[in-house]
């Protein structure tokens, strides 16, 4: 992975920084680890990933408007490579996409699953970043299992338990 990778972090809900002071560095680290582990061949132009840490209200609106789901969710991914109408500018970075996380849902899930917010957020960043790279768990059971295994491998490198293992609570 020799291309320049820019990870832009935007914190729109201060609850994230209050509950997770290292949120920006955590997100940046997990995006980079995921891109490396997923074997992305980034030898060409620079790439950019955006991570937005926001509120349940903001994610609820996005989930309703873009997915037809009238409720908040933990993480949404919008892959830039899926947009056939996106302009291509020679020399400009390739926008892999956006990972958007809802504070209240993530914090509630962490509590219910007996995890720290840091570990749960790390998992969701990995999960969301894999979606940006084209991974999907909705349509193909084998791909879902492979995605879960890759998530577990990435997280284990940081001492984070497999979120799909028995007794570790639900995955995302």
Automatic annotation (TrEMBL):
UniProt cofactor(s): Zn(2+)
GO molecular function term, any single one: metalloendopeptidase activity
Designated name of the protein: Endoribonuclease YbeY
UniProt superkingdom: Bacteria
Subcellular location: Cytoplasm
Predominant place of localization: cytoplasm
Keywords: Cytoplasm, Endonuclease, Hydrolase, Metal-binding, Nuclease, Ribosome biogenesis, rRNA processing, Zinc
Enzyme class: hydrolase
Binding locations of Zn(2+): 127, 131, 137
GO cellular component, one term: cytoplasm
The protein's role, per its UniProt record: Single strand-specific metallo-endoribonuclease involved in late-stage 70S ribosome quality control and in maturation of the 3' terminus of the 16S rRNA.
Gene behind the chain: ybeY
